[in-house]
Design a protein that fits this description.
The protein is α+β, with helices and mostly antiparallel strands. It has three helices and five strands. It has helices spanning about 10-15, 30-40, 45, and strands spanning about 1-10, 20, 60, 65, 80-85. It has a five-stranded mixed sheet with strand order 2-1-5-3-4. The longest helix is centred in the middle third of the chain and has 11 residues, at about 30-40. The relative contact order is 0.28.
């Protein structure tokens, strides 16, 4: 099945703005992010902490809903979902 990944801030530099990704039926946000981290050098450290959890300031949304309010990395994906990734941004 196919999902769309939209990346913002630092993640956009690594992944590009928008990417169609084929994932297996039954995949979760966690399996998608692990797959992206394996295929895109430099992404893993920005996404995951030492224990494999999502970095605290990283926001991942599925169809506009933050995964913190769903099932976290275990949030299931379905055909056509849009996963948006936001890295922490600072500025002044």
């Amino acid at each position: 099945m196919n999902v769309t990944v939209r990346a913002f801030a630092d993640f956009r530099e690594i992944l590009g703005c928008r990417k169609e990704v084929a994932v297996s039926t039954g995949s979760t946000v966690g399996t998608l992010l692990e797959m992206l981290a394996r295929t895109h050098p430099g992404l893993e450290g920005g996404l995951f902490g030492p224990a494999g959890q999502l970095q605290p300031l990283v926001n991942a949304l599925v169809n506009g809903r933050n995964i913190q309010f769903l099932d976290g990395l275990d949030t299931p994906l379905t055909e056509g979902d849009v996963v948006s990734l936001f890295s922490p941004v600072a500025g002044g």
